[in-house]
Amino acid sequence: MSVPEALRVERAAGPEALRVDRAAAPEAPRVERAAAPEAPRVERAAAPEALRVERAAAPEAPRVERAAAPEALRVDRAAALEAPRVERAAALEALRDEIVGCFRCPRLVAWRELVALDKVARFRDEPYWGRPLPGFGDPDARLLIVGLAPAAHGGNRTGRVFTGDASGDFLWAALHELGLADRPSSRRADDGLTLFGVRIAAAVRCAPPRNTPTIEERDACAPFLAREMDLLDTASVVLVLGSFGWNAVLRVLAAAGEPVPVPRPRFGHGATVRIGRRTLVGSYHPSQQNTFTGKLTPPMFRDVLARAKELAGL
Questions:
Q1: Taking residues 78-95, what's their average pLDDT?
Q2: Of residues 293, 289, 248, 297, the one with CA closest to residue 269
Q3: Is the pLDDT of residue 80 over 70?
Q4: CA-CA 20 to 30 A from 2: which of 9, 18, 102, 127?
């Protein structure tokens, strides 16, 4: 083919090639434009679904947190309440060890040890404790009972206050009747006796000759009673057995800065006085001298004990 012929063919083909290109050119954008709206539609369709999932999950998370929060608070409150109880029990145990190891009063030390060696016939085969007596009972007590001192062949023998003698028999029976003890009698310190909301202590921790401590011995023992009462911050009521214990408790409260009235309240069976955050209730001591003569009868003691229980919220 000659050069002019080739040029004619190209010129003839040129417009056709341009037509093909022009036809294809609009098609490509149309395909892209058709595909482009589809992609946003897919994204737009997926977006609400994602939001719905997020919205569904969002309320669920607070619900889970809200449900967990009360449980955490309950655990925290339980732990907060338990901590003081554990600390109080540990402090009372430390005080117990200190009381048991006390030798402050030479007369009382000599007497308690002499009695432990020179036993009465009915207990000649039993070991004697022969040391001071710590408090006994519930470390979370709301009612504290304060007596005079251990009996020579009762607590001084068994190692627990009001245990193993007639005074204890009188006391435990009344406590049991009012639901404050799990049994009506107790003769041994290891018998499992349990008190409910009640703790018992003595103004003087060693058995004194003729059941009569001196004023000096009372004052030497006062720090033990003061510390026990301070640790028993749950005890809003103190039932005091006898005038000796009544005066000992008043002295402890006055020394602690409590607003003890002047003149000081007089002891009497059923006497009741509010001093600071505590209420004192008086009762005749359940000694044999009082119970055998009828000065203190079971109904009399039960009535006063019931009053103290009510005041303590037990």
A1: 84
A2: 297
A3: no
A4: 18
